Structures are given as structure tokens and as C-alpha cells.
Amino acid sequence: MSGAVKIAAAAVTAALCAVVVRKQSPEIALALGLSACALIVLYCGRALAAVVGLADKLAETGGLSAQVVEPVMKTAGIAIVTRLAAEFCKDAKEGGLASAVELAGTVLALSATLPLMTAVLDMLTRLL
């Protein structure tokens, strides 16, 4: 819980600073927001590593191969990065670029799931 409070405090502080600076220099406000976002993501690195470790342990315990678990983790990562990038594009008043980032994220997420879909297809073929 204290980590969430730290993240919220950092985000609110950065947002308030960006609002004040935005009138004089929108570029600096955007850079401030991007920097705050990068720091928050880096702060979450340990928690993310713990989640990946648990997913690997669950896969091993459940007898799932990396071919099944890896696409799920990649898709989640793609979704997170895409969302952040699209939101920053929207903040920069680049709606078209944000839409392109979202489309690219969707395509990349689908392509990341291809090994999982292939594994499901192979399993169905063996059952039939």
C-alpha cells in the first residue's frame, strides 16, 4: 500500500508541476510527465519481476510450457507500453499518432499470441 501512496504522490506532484509549466513551455511539461512516468515504471520493476517469477512458478507447477506462459506475459507488456505511449501522444495533442500506436499495439499483441494459438491448435489436432 505504501508503494501505491508513493506513486500517487509522485504522479500528482509531477502533474501539478506540469500544469504550472505548461502555460510557458508545453515541451517541458511533456518532458516532465514522461520523466515522471519513466521513474514510476522503474519503481514498479521489482513488483513486475515478482509477478513474472510467480507466473513462471505457476507454469512449472501446473506443467505448462513456456510456449503457453510467455505469450501471455508478452501481451501484457505490450498492452502496458502501448497504453503509456498512446496517452503521452494524446497529451502532446497528437491524436493520430496515438491511434497509430494503439493499432500497432493491437497488432503486436495478436502476433505475440501466435505461439499460444499454435499450441492450442496442435493440442486440438492431437485430440481429434
Can you walk through the features of this model?
The longest helix has 26 residues, at 66-91. The protein has helices spanning 2-22, 26-43, 45-62, 66-91, 95-112, 114-127. 90% of the residues lie in helices and 0% in strands. It has 128 residues and is an all-alpha fold. The mean pLDDT is 88.
The sequence of SSEs as H and E is: HHHHHH
Radius of gyration: 19 Å
Number of domains: 2
Query: How many H/I helical runs?
Result: 6
Q: Work out the strand percent.
A: under 5%
Mean pLDDT: 88
Described by the principal axes of the CA atoms, the overall outline is elongated
Secondary-structure content class? mainly alpha
Helix content: over 70%
Question: Uncertain regions: pLDDT < 50 for 5+ in a row?
Answer: none
Largest sheet: none
Q: End-to-end distance, in Å?
A: 49 Å
Q: How many beta-strand elements?
A: 0
Secondary structure: elements and pairs:
Elements: H1 2-22, H2 26-43, H3 45-62, H4 66-91, H5 95-112, H6 114-127
Helix pairs in contact: 1-2, 3-4, 4-5, 4-6
What keywords describe this structure?
128 residues; mainly alpha; 2 domains; 6 helices; 90% helix; elongated
Q: How would you summarize what this structure contains?
A:
With 128 residues, this protein is an all-alpha fold. Helix content is 90%, strand content 0%.
